[in-house]
Structures are given as C-alpha cells and as structure tokens.
Amino acid sequence: MFDISQATSMLHSLGTSSSVANKTAERSVQNSGAEGQSFFEALQQNLAALTPTSNKMAAAESTPSKAPTVSTSATKAENTSAPEPTAEVTAPFENFQEFKNWEKGLGNTFAEDYKAPDYIRAMGLSLWGGDEGAFKRYMFFKNNPQYAVDYESIRSGNLSKYPTDGSSLVKTDLSTMDASTASYYKKNVGNLLMAEGFSMDPTLLKKRLEGSAEGINDPDWLTNHRWTADGAVASNNRVAYAQADFIGIDGKGAGTYRLAKYDSATGRIIDFDGRSYDPITGEEA
Prior knowledge:
By secondary structure, the protein is mostly helical. The protein folds into three domains: 53 residues; 105 residues, no CATH class; 85 residues, no CATH class. Helix content is 41%, strand content 8%. The strands form three sheets. Strands 5-6-7 form a three-stranded antiparallel sheet, with no helix packed on it. Strands 1-2 form a two-stranded parallel sheet. It has a two-stranded antiparallel ribbon with strand order 3-4. The longest helix is centred in the first third of the chain and has 15 residues. The chain is globular. The termini are far apart. About 6% of the residues have low confidence.
C-alpha cells in the first residue's frame, strides 16, 4: 500500500516543487487505491499533467520570501551532457557564513524556458530545508563548486550548462538489463528514476506494468527483489540504492556529484577529509 508521504518525498527528491509533489501524490493515491500497477500509471499521468509550470519554481523554493520573475531570454544554452569540472572553478564563498550571505543575495529571475538542472535533484530535500538545510546545501556546493557557479547563473535568468533531463541521476546499470528493457528506460528516464525513487527494481516494475509477470502485485515485494538472468532474487533495494553512486544513463557518470556521507549512528555529516559536522549548525566535532 502506498501512502501520500512516501510518494511526495520521492517526487520532492527528484526536483518536483512542493505544491506539485503534494498534488500529484494525492491524486495518484486516491485514483489507484492499493494496487501497484494502477498507482504507477496514475502517478505518471498526474505528474505529466501538473509539471509544466513547476520546474520554474523548484530552485526558488530555498528562498521563499522572494517572488520569482521570468526572463524572456537566456544568455547560456542548455546542454544535455555535463562539462568536466576544472581545477580553476572555485566556489563564490569560503565558509558557511559566507555561503549564507551568498545564498541570500542570489537573484530570483529565471529564464522563460528554465528547467531545473539535475544537480538540484541530487541535493535531495535539502534545497527545500530552509535555514535548517543551509549547511547541507553549503556542503554540496562547497564540494561541487562548478554547480554553485551555475546555480548563481540560473538565478539571474540564464539556462544551466548541466543536464536537466535526469539522465545524470540514474543509479541503475542498464548494461545488466536485456536490450529491450534498457532501450525502454533510455527513452523514458523519468520512469527509471521513479522506480529507483520507490526502491523498486526497474525490470521487475516494467514486467509488472506490462502484466507479464506473476506474483509481484505487492509493492513491498518489488522493493525486496531484483531481476537477474535466472529470475527474481531477494534484494534489499532500498539499501542498495542508498549506497549506490549516480552513474548516469550511460553508466559512466560515477563521481559527477561529490556527496558527503551521513553517519547513521551519530546523525552527523562526514566530509571527504573525515571531518564530522552537525548537519544543522555546521559545528565541527
């Protein structure tokens, strides 16, 4: 059985704005009941119907006090492949306090054809975390300064230089799938990300939606099994996805996003140099 909070959190983590995530989840759950296939079909339909106006608002939700404006022209072209980070790129801040000042000073003008870049989705819920999520945003942009520079640019009406189609957020190795399934997900990246967001094996989910597999009606079963050449085997997909890197749709994107780790025992953020920080105050241990 799917609940609204689960669906909303998944959509939020993929970069969907708060209002659209809530509306999409509510409509999908109400229209489908507990049946897995109906839920995913309803989710796809409702998300497609509600998202055209949502992407312009996604980046602005970290500074809700400002009303976003729309620029009718953009000075940078959007790319579908991420440029390689260079050693010359530096973040426009040197510490947490400078980051907070920088963030407050960001523009609030978005290009008319703005689309949220993938790195915003990679940040997860921290973008919408207000002051409590500020240090998490700081850690992300500090470790990925090229995205800080790009984020500042898109908040001034320019288009992102980085992917916006979700292709860099894929964690599934499509080379392990049969050719037909891999081809389907290459053309439907959003459906692949949706499967991963719900901790479901993409191949098994596709089989379920096509009605070609038996015994997998229970959504919980789909989160605890994965498809292999020998059939379905037990797998804790939730843990597997949590530990997996973003490898991208081509499988070559490992390292695209440098993400600090969370210590589940202490709840603290562990940076790449091993230093431990309070995730809200930024106080070092």
